[in-house]
Specification:
Length: 472
C-alpha cells in the first residue's frame, strides 16, 4: 500500500448557463496536474456527458457507475469546480457510487477583470453549496487551504499532495494487518491495547508465540542457503565489527522465521517482545531485524506495542519514509522545549548518521549479560524535520485517541548510546502535560518529515478518532 500509486475519481462540476470553455479548460488543467504528479485518474469521457462534466441526475448516474466499476482502485474523490457547479449532481454521484473514501473540493477563482458573462465563474459561492450538500448527505470532506485556487498554483499542488497522503493513510489503516510476536512484557502495562477496538476500524492482529519462533530458528543449519543470504543482508545493512559471529548468525535465523511468517499472513507491520525472553532463551536482541524491516517500510515496534506500530505505520503511509518507535526519554538540560528520544537500537538506519553500527543493549546487559544482548543498532539522528504521532485504544471510553505534531531534530551535544536523538518541539511542556493527563503511553512514533497536518486530517476527519494536534 505504501508504494502503490494513488488513483482519484474526478468529478468536474458544471452549470450550463456558464461558458463551456471554463469547464473544458478546468478539465484540461486538472488532468495535466494529476498526470505530472503521477496520480491515477478515473473520469468521465468528454463525450459521456456534456463536456465530460456532472450536472444532472443522468450525469450523476453515469459518473457513479464509472466510479463503482473502478471501486477497487479509487482511493479518493476530487471535486473540481470551474464554475458554480451543481451541488446535487456532485453529492448524488458520490452517494450512488457507494464509495466511502476521502473527498477533496477545489474551486476556481474569478479574475477581477473578467466579471463578464464570457468568463464569470461564481465558484467561490458554488463551493459553499457543494460542501453544504456533502454535509447534508453525511460525507466528510477536505477543503483546499485557499477557498478558491487554480489547479496549477503551488498552493493547490501542496493541498493535493497532502490529500493523496491522507488517502494513503486512510486506506492503509482500514486494511492494516499487524503481527504480534510474543507476549507483552509483564512489566509493561503501558503497552496494553484493545484488539477489538482496532478491528472496528479495519485493523487486525495476528499473533505468534516466541516458542514457535525459537523452535523454527534453532532447526536451521548455520550453512543453510537462506541463513547465508540473511547473514549477508545483515552485514550489508550495518557494520557488525565487534559483535560475535554466532550472535549475528542467530539473528539471521530469527529473521528468516519472521520474514516467512509475515509473508504467509500478508502482514504490514510487527510488534515484538524484545525482552527478556529473547535474551534468556535465545541469546540476542532482535533490534537489527526490526530496524531492517522499518527501513524497508514494514514498521516494527518493540515490547509488543501494537498501537505503537499502528502509529508507526500511519507515519510511514503519510511520509512514504521509514518510521521509528521512540521513548520520550530524557529532558535536555534546562531547555523546556527540547528532549532526548531514545531506544536500545531498533530505528531504521536512515534515521542515524554515518557512525551507525551494530552494538549491544547496554542497559539490558547490566542484568541480562552482554553476551545475550547483541543486536542493537546504535547511532545519532542528525538535524532535520521531525513528526511524531501516537494512537491509543482508550478502553475505558471505547474509543481510539491520538496526538500528532511537528518539531525538528537538532544537533545539540549528546553523549550516550543506542538509537538516540535530540528534538525541539514548540511548547514541549504543554505536549507532555497532555500526554500525561490523558493517559498516553511513553512510546511515540516518529518520521523524518512534516506530516502532522496529514495525520490530523486522516485520523480526525476520516477515521473519526479524537485528535490532539499540538502546534505549540
Amino acid at each position: 500500500m505504501i508504494n502503490k500509486k494513488i488513483t482519484l475519481g474526478v468529478i468536474v462540476g458544471n452549470r450550463d448557463f456558464f461558458p463551456d470553455r471554463l469547464v473544458t479548460e478546468g478539465r484540461e488543467d486538472i488532468l495535466k496536474v494529476l498526470n505530472a504528479m503521477n496520480i491515477g485518474v478515473v473520469i468521465l469521457d468528454e463525450d459521456a456527458t456534456k463536456l465530460g462534466a456532472v450536472e444532472t441526475w443522468e450525469h450523476a448516474k453515469k459518473c457513479a457507475d464509472l466510479f463503482a466499476a473502478n471501486r477497487d482502485i479509487i482511493d479518493g474523490i476530487l471535486v473540481v469546480l470551474p464554475n458554480f457547479g451543481d451541488e446535487k449532481g456532485v453529492a448524488d454521484t458520490i452517494k450512488l457510487s457507494g464509495l466511502q473514501v476521502p473527498i477533496l473540493v477545489q474551486a476556481y477563482p474569478d479574475d477581477l477583470d473578467q466579471f463578464n458573462v464570457e468568463r464569470r465563474r461564481d465558484a467561490f459561492c458554488g463551493k459553499i453549496s457543494v460542501c453544504n450538500n456533502l454535509y447534508q448527505y453525511g460525507y466528510n470532506y477536505t477543503v483546499t487551504t485557499l477557498h478558491t485556487v487554480r489547479p496549477t498554483d503551488d498552493s493547490f499542488k501542496k493541498d493535493l499532495q497532502n490529500f493523496v497522503s491522507v488517502c494513503r493513510v486512510v486506506k492503509g489503516l482500514k486494511s492494516a494487518r499487524f503481527g504480534a510476536i510474543g507476549a507483552r512484557p509483564g512489566a509493561f502495562n503501558t503497552t496494553r491495547y484493545s484488539e477489538k477496538l482496532l478491528q472496528v476500524y479495519g485493523m487486525s492482529v495476528t499473533t505468534l508465540d516466541l516458542s514457535e519462533v525459537f523452535g523454527k530458528a534453532e532447526k536451521l543449519a548455520d550453512d543453510h542457503r537462506l541463513v547465508k543470504e540473511k547473514l549477508d543482508s545483515i552485514k550489508a545493512y550495518v557494520p557488525t565489527g565487534g559483535v560475535p559471529g554466532p550472535a549475528v548468525v542467530k539473528m539471521a535465523k530469527l529473521g528468516i522465521v519472521i520474514d516467512e511468517w509475515m509473508k504467509t499472513y500478508d502482514l504490514d507491520a510487527t510488534a515484538i517482545q524484545c525482552w527478556t525472553s529473547l535474551q534468556h532463551n535465545y541469546g540476542v536482541n532482535v533490534c537489527t531485524l526490526m530496524s531492517m524491516m522499518s527501513e524497508n517500510l514494514m514498521p516494527s515496534a518493540c515490547e509488543v506495542d501494537i498501537t505503537g506500530v499502528a502509529s508507526m505505520y500511519a507515519l510511514t503511509l503519510a511520509a512514504g519514509l521509514p518510521s521509528a518507535l521512540v521513548d520520550w526519554n530524557n529532558n535536555y538540560a534546562d531547555d523546556p522545549n527540547k528532549c532526548v528520544l531514545f531506544h536500545c537500537g531498533n530505528w531504521g538506519k536512515s534515521f542515524l548518521g554515518p557512525d551507525v553500527k551494530m552494538a549491544n543493549a547496554e542497559i539490558l546487559a547490566t542484568t541480562l549479560g552482554t553476551e545475550n544482548t547483541y543486536g542493537t543498532v546504535a547511532g545519532r539522528t542528525p538535524s532535520g524535520p521531525f513528526s511524531y504521532a501516537r494512537i491509543t485504544t482508550d478502553d475505558r471510553h471505547g474509543a481510539i485517541r491520538t496526538y500528532v505534531g511537528d518539531g525538528e531534530f537538532v544537533d545539540d551535544p549528546l553523549d550516550t548510546f543506542g538509537s538516540r536523538a535530540v528534538v525541539k518541539v514548540p511548547e514541549l511542556q504543554k505536549l507532555m502535560r497532555h500526554v500525561c493527563k490523558n493517559g498516553f503511553e511513553h512510546h511515540a512514533a516518529m518520521a523524518a518529515a512534516y506530516t502532522a497536518d496529514v495525520l490530523a486530517e486522516a485520523f480526525g476527519n476520516y477515521m473519526g478518532w479524537e485528535v490532539y494536534h499540538h502546534e505549540g
